[in-house]
Amino acid sequence: MSDETVHDTVHEIEVRAPAEAVFALVADAARWPVHFPPSVHVERLEGDDRQERLRIWATANGEVKSWTSRRELDRAALRVTYRQEESRAPVRSMSGEWLLEPLGEERTLVRFTHSFTAVDDAPEHVEWIRRAIDTNTGSELEALRRGAEEADAGLTFSFDDSVRVDGSAKDAYEFIRAADRWTERLPHVARVVLTEDTPNEQILEMDTLTADGGTHTTRSVRVCFPAERIVYKQIRTPALMAAHTGEWIFEEDARGCTVTSRHTVRIEPDAVTSVLGPEADVAAARTMIREALGRNSTATLRCAAEHARRLSGAEPVPAETYVAVQQFYARQMRLLDERRAGQWAETFAEDGVFVQNTAPEPLRGREAVAEAVRRNLARTADAPEQRRHVFSMLTVVPGPDGSLSTRCYAQVLVTPAGGPTRLHLSAVCEDELVPHGDGWLVGHRRVEHDGV
């Protein structure tokens, strides 16, 4: 460690505001996502106004990174020092400070320093880190200057929408988390691209239909806390919003659960008249944003509530349907055990989707599913073992337009020559089965592997 090269950077900006006001913005890390473009979400894990331990999610060179940091806050000296406890590659270590120097009563010089080491001391890692620091620090300092110099004048505001759900918080959470299915489930969503390279850290790009029939495109980073909440920040916002952060909150009780959609918005003042007309003001922008975001979030909440209600089993399917679904899965699993990849893939719809929490991207379309299965089977072709795929603990509930929503436990048993049999994997499988002739095809499958 002592042989590693320590790299130092210094960035400065002059702010036309009292040093105490600037310090307040630096110190209040929970507000960073609203003010600092790279910051997505910050949580105080422990501490107080003098020292604290933070979990931080932010973007760096277009990637989502997260880490924990310790900070020491010295209000009298106008200094905040920090040290990353847990860094993400290519960063090996990172520390530094914010130092504020008063230049009279209404001006402050802000100095933001970084000292870092890179994984393996690799030049490409050093270059990546320097580029991220230069880009992020530049935008953060400019945002700090703007936030301290400009009176808020009602530009930042928050609001909530909530619904009661006659179902489980987990099912409502899964509806919101599985945003890749929103084009099927939400009438106001026209296009979705969802990526999840790191479990529970998502990038969501979405085209939303507006009340006048147009569309606007947003891009968000989402951090998922399973069955509890999903926080997000839009990194591509409509012109009227300088920043938009939010949170989906799932609170379960004895009678069901409450789901809340919380928004915090900072209006872009320079866009008010160009977007809403020459007579518009900030109050009109607040009203318009509140109505538009509230309309869409309420529609999403209601659909999530209906989804969770259906999955609660309040409307069981007829016994003959349940048996037919069991037979469908029995045939499907036998095809996989017998290594008939093409025939197994034919149990999926032409545009079927297969998602796993062990894979960063979904498989889209029957042919993509078939090719992936062929690759997996080829890897075990010479192994002297027998694999058995088992679906059990099946629940089936009716869906719209004759579809069915199913959930079951999925296990793979492996028996080598001479035994014994061992459990290879355990998962939960959730399907949407779409009608096809006298039976069904898999329109969408999500497999959540245990232990991931």
From TrEMBL:
Domain named SnoaL-like: residues: 320-446
Pfam family membership, one: SnoaL_4
CDD domains: NTF2_like (cd00531), OtcD1_ARO-CYC_like (cd08861)
SUPFAM superfamilies registered for this protein in UniProt: Bet v1-like (SSF55961), NTF2-like (SSF54427)
InterPro entries in the record: NTF2-like_dom_sf, Polyketide_cyclase/dehydratase, SnoaL-like, START-like_dom_sf
Organism domain of life: Bacteria
Name this polypeptide is given: Actinorhodin polyketide synthase
Organism from which the protein derives: Streptomyces tirandamycinicus
